[in-house]
Amino acid sequence: MKHRMLAGFFSLICGALAGVAHADIKEPPMMTREAWGAKPANIANMLKHDGPYKGIVVHNTATPQAAWKHKTTKQKLQDIQFGHQKNPHLFRKDMIKVQGKWGDFAYHYYIDIDGQIAAARDPQYQGDSGTYYDMSGQLLVVLEGNFDKDPTNAKQLASLDAIVAWLASKHGLSADQITGHRQNFRVGTTKTVSTQCPGANLEKYLPELRRKTAAALQSK
Ligand SMILES: [Zn+2]
Questions:
Q1: Would you say 213 and 164 are in contact if contact means Cβ atoms under 8 Å apart?
Q2: CA–CA separation, 87 vs 129, rounded Å?
Q3: How far does residue 38's CA lie from ligand 1's centre (Å)?
Q4: Spatial separation of the C-alpha atoms in residues 179 and 181, rounded to whole Å
Q5: Looking at residue 57, what DSSP letter applies?
Q6: Cα–Cα distance, 14 to 189 (Å, whole number)
Q7: Is-contact 49 137, C-beta < 8 A?
Q8: How far is the CA of 196 from the centre of ligand 1 (A)?
Q9: Is 128 among the domain residues?
């Protein structure tokens, strides 16, 4: 009885603080790197975030969903990591000096066509990109598909809502710090490649994602 009273007391306090403190939103279920058979990261070729997290950047894989129908999620993740670890660093002077290739899967989190989330790159390291933009402090979430052609589906979007709310809550980010890749893209080097990422159909969902994230942060 005493415990129940105490619990009630603390929930009252937490309720009172809800408008100020960031919500305690639970981590969504996630496939681990071990579960999908990730190769070790080459951390010598990776940069740590040099300050607090600044935002969440949403991407698409740009591979049409139909092209990958025959592969399991595990295979897709392994294939992407294999490809990424062969990519040269084109946009970071410090990396070009050592002619290093990307150390790991470019993105921190992956969402497959059925909404299964997988842990990809260790979030304490900055992501990688084939375009030039500042990735320090950014958490990268990628959805499987080419959303200039593929429609988004409810399972993928529900998982995106869940992981973004959790990351925002965990790292003290606000809804307006959620962006799409294209928004971050900068013209700044001769090797610049433009991008349509995260694709029109996913990009048009971002305002709703921000509203849902703000609501999730408020309500807990
Ligand atoms: Zn992207």
A1: yes
A2: 9
A3: 21
A4: 7
A5: E
A6: 49
A7: yes
A8: 8
A9: yes
Which domain covers residue 186, as residue numbers?
23-219
Q: Residue 81 corresponds to which tokens in the numbers above? A: 């990591």
Structural domain contains residue 12? no
The reply to whether 115 falls in a domain is: yes
Q: pLDDT, tens digit, for every residue of 28-74?
A: 999 999 999 999 999 988 999 989 999 999 999 999 999 998 999 99
Report yes or no on 13 lying in a domain.
no
CB of 61 within 8 A of CB of 142? yes
Q: How far apart are the C-alpha atoms of 126 and 121, rounded to whole Å?
A: 9
Length in residues, the chain: 220
- Which of 105-114, 172-181, 194-203 has the lowest average pLDDT? 194-203
Instruction: Report the separation in Å between the CA atom of 142 and the middle of ligand 1, taken as the mean of its atom positions.
Output: 7
Phi/psi of residue 203, nearest 5 degrees: -60, -35
Provide the β-strand partners of residue 180.
Answer: 58
How many independent structural domains does the chain possess? 1
CATH number, position 118: 3.40.80.10
Tokens of 99: 């002619």
Rounded to the nearest whole angstrom, what is the distance from the C-alpha of residue 56 to the centroid of ligand 1? 12
Report CA(141)–ligand 1 centroid distance (Å): 9
Q: Please check the confidence at residue 187 and state whether its pLDDT lies above 50.
A: yes
With H, G, I as helix, E, B as strand and everything else as coil, classify residue 148: coil
